[in-house]
């Protein structure tokens, strides 16, 4: 029996003799493997991005907004005419068992000024519950407290984008900024959350006590009205019951009876993101499968070329058999050739796949995550393809009868 | 027992409705150290016989003992090993592997024998030197003359130190001068290295180099005699030994 090193050398030689053909044959596998890696990396990136969104937005989150929207979304009136009040949110916390925490919010775009710098952004009037629900953390200083709410204090917590634009490198704590011309003391800074899935800068925000916002800053026509209420359900399972409970409660509180349309809208962001996650998962699997088909096609290419090679080299096989090669020696030689083709394709494919994924990540706004699993899977798959499609030609070669093979011209 | 002993060999090829005996009850024994020429008209079954002797083919019936072993019952893989270790082939068409250098061609039988690489190269070089091709080691078959190619094939046949060399018309593709070169080589292998050689040829000139000539006709052996020259030498020996001279 022939040793493996020699088989390897013989196979490598034969492939080298037909360089161009070998390269073209491997190309099928290269494309297949790199496509699988790129597709799965994009899929993984999309998933990761959504996960990050969920984490940064807050888990088990419902948004209750003023105004109605039909289910088809044609009349997008949500948030335009205020119908929700702080009382509504207090009632939710009290009467809806699935609701863990509520955070009524009012918001307006305002001009911020500090010395000669100015910046305009959304100023949100919030309650202390807002920060934990929406996953905001304090970087330095403190957050909005119950006392701030009670006393309508003019204090503000700044997002990092606002800090940078107004203060540059300076420490803003205890500095006074003007919001809509009114002085506010900066009491805290928010930890940066970066962009969300839609590319919005989440750090471009200012938080102030909701009472201050309603009574002093926003000259509102509807005192006590809020723009939206963030609701945290007890857990993922209770999201839907929370939605039902809130709908029932608000319809009752707003006297909508049985026929009138809802004058509020509830958005289940967590669910939306979960759905998006599933969709991107499905997409990744789909793209991955399409890519694997090209791997399969690459395998068929290998089989094709190996069959041609066996026929072409019938005489060589006859000579080898005449001087002592066993059927197994011949089979192993051709199998190793096929395997070398596919594994070389696999290795190059992995390199191309990683580079390709990086390029996609660099030149598009898609998040791309290259993880080990797709690389190992697609590389392993290329090996399996090599064995699978290389076996038959190798088997055929080993069945040749030495005299007939020798006679072959 | 003889080195090669075939008894009542029949090889039948199916041809259309009837079948045809390419070998018809052939019996032959060859002793170690013999140099046998097989002659006969085209289609008389010489190659068929050689293929069976070379364990490349199996007889339809009959027995074949090679070195005391009954090879007619062996599997193809067992026959591969026999071919590898006991037999060296030289073909009319050289049968070198194309686009593979002389030395790599000569190395080949040792690969299948499991000889380690360094040893292989050493022995391949030695074999090429014996056939006078030490300067052509890296030449591809298509860069060599017919005679050179045939010498590479001879080097390949002897490199595993097989005791038997089978050559089916080894000079069939060579001109007279090269044929003589090659034949002188076989004579040396037989006389010096003690190889048993069986060689098929059409040419009486070539057969003259051999000690024994077996003639085939229609699948049968019609004559089996010592070469005339050889006969003379033998009788001389006999006379010698009897002490007349
Ligand atoms: N595979 C085969 N199938 C059918 N008939 C065959 C086969 N091989 C050989 N024969 C027949 O067997 C007979 C003997 O052939 P063989 O090759 O032994 O002749 P040969 O003596 O070597 O002739 P040559 O001197 O021309 O080489 C021929 O008639 C040939 O047609
Ligand atoms: Mg012949």
Please sum up the structure shown:
Chain A contains 13 helices and twelve strands.
Question: If you had to describe this structure to a student in words, what would you say it looks like?
Answer:
The complex is a heterodimer of chains A (409) and B (245). By secondary structure, chain A is α+β, with helices and mostly antiparallel strands. Chain A has two domains: 4-53 and 275-407, no CATH class; 82-262, no CATH class. Chain A contains 13 helices and twelve strands. In chain A, the strands form two sheets. Chain A has a six-stranded mixed β-barrel with strand order 3-4-9-6-8-7. A two-stranded antiparallel sheet of chain A has the order 2-10. In chain A, strand 7 (176-179) and strand 8 (182-190) form a beta hairpin. In chain A, helix 1 packs across helix 11 (327-363) and helix 9 packs parallel to helix 12 (372-398). The radius of gyration of chain A is 33 Å and the shape is elongated. Chain A starts with a helix and ends with a helix. The longest helix of chain B has 16 residues, at 176-191. The mean pLDDT of chain B is 91. With 245 residues, chain B is of the alpha/beta class. Chain B has helices spanning 46-53, 76-86, 102-113, 117-130, 146-158, 176-191, 204-207, 228-241; strands at residues 4-15, 18-30, 35-40, 61-66, 69-70, 87-91, 164-168, 196-200, 212-217, 220-226. Chain B has a single domain (33-45, 76-241), classed as P-loop containing nucleotide triphosphate hydrolases (Rossmann fold). Chain B is globular and about 45 Å long. The two termini of chain B are 34 Å apart. Chain B has a six-stranded mixed beta sheet with strand order 6-7-8-3-9-10, with helices on both faces. Chain B is 38% helix and 27% strand. Chain A binds chain B through residues 1-3, 5-6, 10, 13, 17, 315-316, 318-329, 402-403, 406, and chain B through 51, 54, 56-57, 76-77, 80-81, 83-85, 89, 91, 95-100, 108-109, 111-114, 117, 156, 160. The structure holds adenosine-5'-triphosphate (ATP) and magnesium ion. Magnesium ion binds at residues 46-47, 168 of chain B.
């Amino acid at each position: 029996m022939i040793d493996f090193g020699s088989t390897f050398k013989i196979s490598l030689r034969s492939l080298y003799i037909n360089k161009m053909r070998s390269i073209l044959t491997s190309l099928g596998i290269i494309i297949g493997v790199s496509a699988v890696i790129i597709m799965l990396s994009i899929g993984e990136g999309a998933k990761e991005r959504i996960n990050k969104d969920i984490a940064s937005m807050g888990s088990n989150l419902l948004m209750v907004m003023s105004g109605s929207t039909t289910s088809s979304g044609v009349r997008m009136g949500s948030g335009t005419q205020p119908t929700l009040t702080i009382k509504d949110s207090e009632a939710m916390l009290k009467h809806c068992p699935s609701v863990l925490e509520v955070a009524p919010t009012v918001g307006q775009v305002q001009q911020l000024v500090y010395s000669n710098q100015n910046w305009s952004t959304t100023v949100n009037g919030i309650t202390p519950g807002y920060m934990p629900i929406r996953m905001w953390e304090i970087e330095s200083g403190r957050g909005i407290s119950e006392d701030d709410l009670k006393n309508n204090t003019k204090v503000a917590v700044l997002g990092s984008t606002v800090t940078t634009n107004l203060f540059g490198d300076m420490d803003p704590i205890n500095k006074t900024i003007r919001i809509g011309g009114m002085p506010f003391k900066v009491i805290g800074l928010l930890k940066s959350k970066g962009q969300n899935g839609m590319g919005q800068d989440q750090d471009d925000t200012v938080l102030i006590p909701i009472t201050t916002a309603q009574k002093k800053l926003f000259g509102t026509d509807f005192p006590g009205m809020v723009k939206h209420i963030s609701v945290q359900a007890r857990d993922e399972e209770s999201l839907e019951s929370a939605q039902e409970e809130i709908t029932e409660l608000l319809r009752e509180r707003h006297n909508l009876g049985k026929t009138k349309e809802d004058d509020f809208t509830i958005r289940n962001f967590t669910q939306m993101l979960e759905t998006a996650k599933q969709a991107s998962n499905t997409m990744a699997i789909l793209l991955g499968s399409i890519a694997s088909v090209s791997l399969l096609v690459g395998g068929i290419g290998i089989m094709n070329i190996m069959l041609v090679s066996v026929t072409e080299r019938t005489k060589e096989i006859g000579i080898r058999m005449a001087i002592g090669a066993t059927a197994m020696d011949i089979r192993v030689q051709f199998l190793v050739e096929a395997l070398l083709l596919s594994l070389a394709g696999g290795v190059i494919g992995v390199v191309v796949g990683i580079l390709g994924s990086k390029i996609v990540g660099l030149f598009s706004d898609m998040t791309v995550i290259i993880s080990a699993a797709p690389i190992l899977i697609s590389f392993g798959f290329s090996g399996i393809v090599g064995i699978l499609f290389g076996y038959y030609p190798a088997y055929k070669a080993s069945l040749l009868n030495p005299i007939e093979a020798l006679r072959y011209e | 027992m003889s080195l090669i002993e075939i008894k009542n060999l029949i090889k039948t090829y199916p041809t259309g409705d009837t079948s045809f005996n390419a070998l018809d009850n052939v019996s032959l024994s060859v002793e170690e150290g013999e140099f046998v020429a097989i002659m006969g008209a085209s289609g008389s079954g010489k190659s068929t016989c050689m293929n069976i002797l070379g364990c490349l083919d199996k007889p339809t019936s009959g027995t074949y003992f090679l070195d005391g072993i009954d090879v007619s019952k062996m599997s193809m893989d067992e026959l591969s090993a026999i071919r590898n270790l006991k037999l060296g082939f030289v073909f009319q068409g050289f049968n070198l592997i194309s686009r593979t250098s002389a030395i790599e061609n000569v190395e080949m039988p040792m690969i299948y024998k499991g000889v380690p690489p360094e040893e292989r190269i050493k022995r391949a070089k030695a074999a090429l030197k014996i056939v006078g091709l030490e300067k052509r080691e890296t030449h591809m078959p298509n860069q060599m003359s017919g005679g050179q190619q045939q010498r590479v094939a001879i080097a390949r046949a002897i490199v595993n130190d097989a005791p038997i060399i089978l050559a089916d018309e080894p000079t069939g593709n060579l001109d007279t001068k090269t044929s003589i070169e090659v034949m002188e080589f076989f004579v040396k292998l037989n006389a010096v290295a003690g190889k048993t050689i069986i060689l098929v040829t059409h040419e009486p000139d070539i057969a003259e180099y051999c000690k024994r000539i077996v003639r085939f006709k229609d699948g049968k052996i019609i004559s089996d005699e010592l070469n005339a020259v050889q006969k003379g030498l033998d009788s001389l020996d006999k006379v010698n030994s009897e002490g007349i001279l």
